[in-house]
Amino acid sequence: MKFSLSTILPLAMALSSASAQGTVAAYTDPKTSITFQAYTDPTGYTFGIALPTTPGADFVGLLVGKAKGWAGVSLGGSMVNKLLIAAWPSGTKIISSFRETPATRSPPEATGPGYTITPIDAGTYTNATHWSLTFLCKGCILTDGTTFASNASTDVLGWAFATAAPATPANHASTLPKHGSQGNYGISFAAARTAKYATYAALANGTTIPTMFRA
Fold first, then answer.
1. 144: nearest Cα among 192, 51, 76, 85
2. Are 25 and 38 in contact, with CB atoms under 8 Å apart?
3. Which of 90, 146, 174, 188 is the most exposed place for a label (fewest CB within 10 A)?
4. What pLDDT does 9 receive?
5. Would you say residue 189 lies in a domain?
6. What pLDDT, on a 0 to 100 scale, did the predictor assign at position 14?
7. How does pLDDT run across 108-147, given as a tens digit for each residue?
8. Is 97 a domain residue?
9. How many angstroms separate the CA atoms of 176 and 69, rounded?
10. By its UniProt entry, which Pfam families does this protein fall under (predicted)?
11. Most confident of 14-18, 20-24, 167-171
C-alpha cells in the first residue's frame, strides 16, 4: 500500500499531538527577533526553522533543550540513514555536531559534502531553565534523500530529547546516551519562508562557540 504525503503529514501531526501534545506554530525569538516555524514539546524541546523565499541548501535554525541533556533533530524524519543535528551544553557553551547512523544506536558524527553550523550569538546561551542554540546551517539541505527537499512545501521531521548528558560533553564527537523522548511531526516549510531571511542569516557570527563541528 502506498501513502501520499497528504496522508502522512496529518497522521504524523496527529500522532505527535496525541503522544506529547506538541505544537507547530510561528515563534518569534525575543533575543534575536527571528521568526521560526517551530515545533515545541512539553519536555522542553524546541526546533525551529526559517528559510529564504526561494530555498536552496541553507536555513536558519533554533534548537532548545534543558538541563544537561542533549536534543536532536532529524532533517529527514527518521533516525536511520538521515542527517541529524545534535546539541547540548558544556558549561556555558553549546556544543553541536552532525550525526548519521545506519542503525538505531548512538549515531556517530557525519562527514559530508560541506554542511556547516555557525551560531548566532544572541540566541545561543544557557540559563537556569534551558539552553538554546540559534544557528545558520549552510549546505544542510541535501539532494541525496537524507534531508527534506529544498522545494518541499511540507514534510515530516524527527525529534529526540535526553535528560542525560553526553558521555564527554566538551567533545563534539561524544557518545550520546539514549533519548528518553522522541517522535515525528509535520511542518510547513512554505510557512517558514521569509523575506527577512538574509537579515537573519547575517546575524551568524560564531564568536562565542569555538567547538562547532565542520564536515
1. 76
2. yes
3. 188
4. 40
5. yes
6. 37
7. 888 766 888 999 999 999 999 999 999 999 999 999 999 9
8. yes
9. 9
10. CDH-cyt
11. 167-171
Supply the range of the domain harboring residue 112: 5-201
**Residue 81 within a domain:** yes
Pull the grid cell for residue 124.
Answer: 545561543
Query: Is the confidence at residue 214, as pLDDT, over 80?
Result: no
Q: Domain count for the chain, please give it.
A: 1
Residue from 25, 117, 112 nearest 73 by CA? 117
Minimal CA–CA distance to 184: which of 65, 10, 58, 1? 10
Q: Which residue type is seen at 162?
A: A
Q: Cell match 536558519: residue? A: 60
- Residue 210, in any domain of the structure: no
Q: What percent of the chain lies above the pLDDT cut of 70?
A: 84
SS (HEC) of 2-62 = CCCHHHHHHHHHHHHHHHHCCEEEEEECCCCCCEEEEEECCCCCEEEEEECCCCCCCEEEE
Grid coordinates given for 114: 560541506
Q: Distance between CA 29 and CA 87 in Å, rounded?
A: 18
Note the pTM of the prediction, 2 decimals. 0.86
